[in-house]
């Protein structure tokens, strides 16, 4: 699919590893109570132990793992409240980001371009195409908030539980429609509407995740 997408951020190895493990935990491939070994994970992913250890620390900070001295980590139990808390924080931060982006005079033409191109080519698009489009859509808004600390915190939340539904066609269709509403609100410079659209978008994601939960 021929869409020009900007590379707003390249995730370091530790974040990529954390994303892989997080996905396995949320999907149920790694069960609560299961022990993860630094050596086993580093061998499976063909990386050194250092980024794996750092990935474990990231997941510990998210309350997904319990670290054990020199013995790797244990997967903790998660429940609905984990996901509700996650989305509550994202809503608080992303609504502030879009408010600041609009007040900073964000150029909406880039969002319109990638949205229209993806929508036009949706039948031939892969899950990876959608992930890249979706990432660029959100990251572009965050960057235009012109607050590096806000951008950094949102990045730390990005590879979260929404992965479970991201490749499902009905979710993609809903997401595209919600993105269109966000674009229209930005074009109108209507901060109140934009905030409402972002809240709806993220609450829809939460609702879908809870309906598909595997823990």
TrEMBL record:
CDD domains recorded for this chain?
A: WHTH_GntR
Keyword field contains Kinase:
no
Against Gene3D superfamilies, the record matches this protein to: GntR ligand-binding domain-like (1.20.120.530), Winged helix-like DNA-binding domain superfamily/Winged helix DNA-binding domain (1.10.10.10)
Domain HTH gntR-type per the UniProt entry, residue ranges: 11-78
One example of the protein's molecular function in GO is:
DNA-binding transcription factor activity
The alphabetical list of record keywords is: DNA-binding, Transcription, Transcription regulation
| Annotated SMART domains | FCD, HTH_GNTR
Which PANTHER family does the entry mention?
A: GNTR FAMILY REGULATORY PROTEIN, TRANSCRIPTIONAL REGULATOR, GNTR FAMILY
Q: What is this protein called?
A: HTH gntR-type domain-containing protein
């Amino acid at each position: 699919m021929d869409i020009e997408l900007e590379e707003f951020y390249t995730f370091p190895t530790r974040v990529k590893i954390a994303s892989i493990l997080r996905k396995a935990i949320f999907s149920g491939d790694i069960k609560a109570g299961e022990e993860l070994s630094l050596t086993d994970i580093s061998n499976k992913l063909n990386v050194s132990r250092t980024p794996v250890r750092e990935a474990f620390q990231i997941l510990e900070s998210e309350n997904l793992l319990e670290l054990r001295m020199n013995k790797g980590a244990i997967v903790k139990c998660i429940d609905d409240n984990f996901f509700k808390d996650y989305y509550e924080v994202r809503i608080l931060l992303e609504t502030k980001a879009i408010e600041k982006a609009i007040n900073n005079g964000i150029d909406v033409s880039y969002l319109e371009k990638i949205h229209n191109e993806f929508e036009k080519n949706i039948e031939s698009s892969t899950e990876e195409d959608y992930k890249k489009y979706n990432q660029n859509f959100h990251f572009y808004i965050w960057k235009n908030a012109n607050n590096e600390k806000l951008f950094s915190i949102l990045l730390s939340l990005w590879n979260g539980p929404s992965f479970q539904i991201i490749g499902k066609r009905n979710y993609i269709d809903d997401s595209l429609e919600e993105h269109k509403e966000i674009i229209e609100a930005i074009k109108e410079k209507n901060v109140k509407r934009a905030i409402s659209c972002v809240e709806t978008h993220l609450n829809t994601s939460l609702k879908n995740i809870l309906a598909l939960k595997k823990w």
